[in-house]
Amino acid sequence: MKINFSTPSGFPEFLPGEKRLEQHLMDTIRRVYESYGFTPIETPAVERLEVLQAKGNQGDNIIYGLQPLLPPTRQSERDEAGRGDTGSEARALKFDQTVPLAAYIARHANDLQFPFARYQMDSVFRGERAKDGRYRQFRQCDIDVVGRKELSLLYDAQMPAIIAEIFSQIQIGDFLIRINNRKVLTGFFSSLGVTPDRIKACINIIDTLEKVGVDKVLAGLAAQGLSPAQSQQVIDFINIQGNVDRVLGALDEFATKLPDADRFKLGIAELTTVINGVRNLGVPENCYCIDLSIARGLDYYTGTVYETTLIGHEALGSICSGGRYEELVGTFIGESMPGVGISIGLTRLIYRLLKANILQPLAATPTQVMVLNLQEDLMPVYLQVSQQLRQAGLKVVTAFDKRPLKKQFAFADKQGITFCVVIGEEEAANKRCQLKNMIDGEQVEVSIDDLANELKQRLG
User: Fold this and answer.
1) Would you list the domain boundaries of the chain?
2) For residue 142, what are the β-bridge partners?
3) C-alpha angle 198/202/206, rounded to 5°?
4) Is 309 annotated as a binding residue?
5) Is 144 annotated in some ligand binding site?
6) pTM of this prediction?
C-alpha cells in the first residue's frame, strides 16, 4: 500500500539553510532577552483543556484536542484509556505560551522569585485554516514578566526597547512599534454609553480595521447598536495621528469632554508613563508611535498593548505583539498577579521574510572546512588533521568516501563550505597541505602544524 508521506497541511518543515537561519535568529533573540534578565523555561506541549479554556483564555483560537489511539490488538482497553481523557482530564495542545505560563506560575508559585521574568521558545498549535504564511504548528519566542499583587509600568516600557533591539540586530529594515492601552479604548466606549457587555465586541471590531476597512468596521459597530454619530466618533477617535506628544495631548482634550471618563483617564495616565519610559530607555522616536486602533484580540489583555510592523511591508502583518494582563494568573490561584509580555511568531516571520527576499537562507551546513580524501591509505592523516582543527574550535567535515577530486570540490561548494584541505602522498610526507578557498579559488600551501591558525585568520 502506498503511504502518503507529505507533511500534514499547516505543519511546516525547513530545509537545512532555513533551519540554520531560524537558529541564528533564535540565538540573537535569546541574547537580547537574557541581556534584560529573562530566564528560560519550557512548558509541556500538552495542557489540560480546562486550563486553556479558563475564563475566555481561548479567544478565537481553535484548539487541538488529544485522545489515545489504541492499536488493533488492544481495543479491549478502549474504555479504560478513554476515561482518563474525558471531563476534567481532557487534554489539548497549547495554542500560545502565555496561558501555559500562568499555569506554570500557579504550579510553582512557592519556588519562584517575583517579579518573575522568563523567556520561552517552544512550538504552539492552532487549528486554524492553513494558508500562505499561516501554520497550525509554529515556534513562538516569548517573554513575560509577572509580579505579585503589583507590577511597575516600567516593565511595559521595557518591552518596546527589547523589540527595537532585536529587530535592529537582525537587520530586516525599518519597523514601527505601535502602542496603545485597552483602558483608553474601554473607557472611551463606556463614555459613549456603550454597555459593558458590548464593549468587548466593539473593541474586537476596531481591531480588524486594517484587514477589513472603515466601511465594514462601521457596519460592525452599527450591528452592536451604535448610532451613526457614535460610530463616526469611534472612527475619528482611532484615527488620531501624529507624534506621541500630539496624540497624548489630543487624548487629554478628549478626557475633558467625555462624561464618566475615569477609566479613560487612567488609561491615558498609564500610556503616558509607558511612553516616558520608552523615551528614557533610548528607543529612537521613529521606531514607535501611539496607535489607538490597536487592541489585540485576546480577552486577557487589560492595559498596554503592542503590535510591530515592518515599514514598506505592512502586508506581512504584525511581526511582534503582546500586552499587559491583570487576571490571567489569578484565574488559577485566586491572587492578583499582573503580567506583561510580547511574542514573536518566529516560524511565520521567517516564512514572510524569506518570501519577501528580506532575509536569505544561510549555508546548508555550519561546516567551515572540509578535509578531502585523495588516498584511502592516508585516512589516518585526514582523521588526525580533522580532529586537530576541531580542537582548535573549527567546524570540520572529513570526506570518508574516495571520489574524484572534482566531485569533492563540487560537494563543498554546494554546501557552502569555505575551505578545502587537500593532502596527497607528497604533502603528507612533508607535513604540509594545500588550502583552497572555495569562494575566490585561491590555493596556498600551508604547514599542517600552522593550518588551524591560518584558517582562523582567513575566516576572520
Assistant:
1) 16-355, 369-459
2) 120, 343
3) 175
4) no
5) yes
6) 0.89
